[in-house]
Specification:
Elements: H1 3-55, H2 72-79, E1 95-103, E2 106-113, E3 121-129, E4 134-142
Antiparallel strand pairs: 1-2, 2-3, 3-4
């Protein structure tokens, strides 16, 4: 073989190696972003259930629009969250979700995704204003709930 042929083979191997590395990185980024969006979507669903709890009459197991019946334990129980720190007993495929704070008619839920990127997991914080019926989410990254 000539020098030019060997050089072309080496160059081809380098190009294929770089393409594989870029493909793996792109797949990891897409998995992380997809997990982040799935967690945010799941928290939006839990947020609408929290609003439903607030507006459901007391006689039917809700809060009856009475903020004294809105506690971490009661909201978590209505959403189906049980276990330590009111975390979801059987975490979904997307991550783990918790009721982290209840203050008057404001409920805060957090979700920690399962996909890791640079040692961090997607952390979504959702704040639900029960009286107004609004849900807002913020996205960040964390290594754990703490």
């Amino acid at each position: 073989m000539g020098t030019q042929q060997i050089l072309l083979i080496v160059l081809s191997v380098i190009i294929v190696g770089v393409a594989i590395a870029v493909g793996i990185t792109m797949f990891g980024n897409q998995a992380y972003n997809g997990n982040q969006q799935a967690c945010a979507s799941e928290l939006q669903g839990y947020g609408s259930l929290a609003i439903q709890y607030y507006k459901t009459p007391k006689s039917q197991g809700g809060a009856g629009q009475d903020s004294t019946f809105v506690t971490v334990a009661k909201v978590a129980a209505f959403l189906g969250f049980i276990g330590p720190n009111d975390s979801l007993q059987n975490p979904s495929d997307n991550g783990e979700f918790r009721v982290t704070n209840v203050s008057g008619t404001t409920v805060t839920l957090k979700g920690l995704g399962k996909e890791m990127k640079a040692g961090m997991y997607p952390l979504i914080t959702t704040v639900i204003s029960l009286a107004e019926g609004t849900i807002s989410s913020t996205v960040s990254a964390a290594s754990s709930f703490n």
